[in-house]
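Thread: DUF2970 family protein, structure

OP (GT): Posting the sequence first so everyone is looking at the same thing. Length is 77 residues per the record. Can we get the structure tokens written out before standup tomorrow? I want them in the notebook alongside the other entries.
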Amino acid sequence: MSNDDSSQRGDDAAPGLWQTVASVAASFFGVQSARNRERDFTKGKPLHFIVVGLAMTLAFILVIWAAVRFALHSAGL
């Protein structure tokens, strides 16, 4: 691998799946770093963030729903 190839795989690369998931999770809590936010807005594809964001929102809703059902069942309601 030449120096040109290694420099292209660094900051010039679009965020991968796990970087996208981490960025969306950080944005849920409002703790996204400036460096990652810059990378996301310049190199990321909006559709990827939308899909991951919707999936994580659905997962969050399902976890809350399951917790409420468990609590109600435990309370005998």
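GT: Both are above now. Quick notes for whoever picks this up: The first helix runs from residue 3 to 8. The CA atoms of residues 1 and 29 lie 38 Å apart.
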